[in-house]
Design a protein that fits this description.
By secondary structure, this protein is an alpha/beta fold. The protein has a single domain, classed as Carbon-nitrogen hydrolase (Nitrilase/N-carbamoyl-D-aminoacid amidohydrolase, 4-Layer Sandwich), CATH 3.60.110. It is about 20% helix and about 25% strand. The strands form two sheets. It has a six-stranded mixed sheet, covered by helices on one side. Strands 6-7-8-9-10-11 form a six-stranded mixed sheet. Strand 7, helix 4 and strand 8 form a beta-alpha-beta unit. Helix 1 runs parallel beside helix 2. The termini are far apart.
Length: about 260
């Protein structure tokens, strides 16, 4: 069973252009059981200037429909703002949308930053993504952040999903460079793996190093909490990963920290 980590850079406000890039990247994946894209890929990261525009939200919906149609036989998970149809709270969710052969499932971010909370409602449901024989706990961005007041007690969104017995933790993100060193990021991810005793898949947004924004560095941790596959920093990449590597004792902690 193979998955693909699609570490790509997208432009805030360009839903149509981002959809074209998503489709092209998904088509690079051959016989993949899941192609995973970063947080808010469709809208572009930090799309706050556009989120009050109904026309832009409609463009995001049209982009999702186009991706679903043109990638009908390719299972994709893409980050996108989606409407909150409950009639309560903020008008949108920051979501990860799974699409394959007419199916569509939405997974929502729970842990929101102050900027996000102005536009997005936190997740109102606990559910996992079933793909083949694997169940994924889908988390977004800061959902993996420690919310405990005790720095030695790791508590976050994953705790709420563990009763659903996921096989793998999945996190799509748009984490900027400089928020955490790459070494600290790996350690924080590893702590989640050790706590939950589950592999972890991290897919991050990326931009050119000159922009000093999103640094990529997507990676997968196996059961032994080792990095078993990783993508480069500041480069777009569609990384093929055979899930058999999750049980491997081999590790490839080869990511070196960078300077801007």
């Amino acid at each position: 069973m193979k998955i693909n980590l699609a570490q790509i850079g997208c432009v805030a406000g360009d839903a149509a252009g981002n959809a074209s890039k998503i489709i092209a990247s998904a088509r690079q994946a051959k016989a993949s059981s899941l192609v995973i894209f970063p947080e808010l890929t469709v809208s572009g990261p930090e799309p706050y200037a556009f989120l009050k525009d109904e026309g832009f939200i409609a463009q995001c919906e049209q982009a999702l429909d186009r991706i679903a149609h043109e990638c009908e036989t390719i299972p994709v998970l893409v980050g996108c703002p989606v409407r909150n149809t409950t009639g309560q709270g903020k008008p949108l969710f920051n979501a990860a949308v799974y699409m394959f052969q007419g199916q569509r499932f939405v997974f929502k971010k729970k842990q929101l930053s102050a900027a996000e909370a102005e536009f997005f409602e936190p997740s109102d449901q606990d559910t996992v993504l079933q793909v083949g024989c694997h169940k994924y706990a889908v988390t977004i961005g800061d959902d993996l952040t420690n919310t405990s007041q005790d720095e030695f007690l790791l508590s976050n969104r994953v705790d709420e999903l563990m009763p659903l017995a996921p096989d793998v933790i999945l996190n799509i993100s748009a984490e900027k460079c400089g928020l955490r060193s790459s070494a600290r990021r790996r350690n924080d991810m590893r702590m989640n793996v050790l706590k939950c005793e589950r592999p972890l898949v991290f897919v991050n947004a990326v931009a050119d190093k000159k922009e000093a924004t999103y640094d990529g560095g997507s990676m997968i941790f196996g059961y032994e909490s080792y990095v078993v596959a990783s993508a480069p920093f500041f480069e777009e990449s569609v990384l093929d990963v055979n899930l058999e590597c999750l049980i491997s004792m081999r590790h490839v902690d080869e990511q070196e920290d960078y300077t801007l």
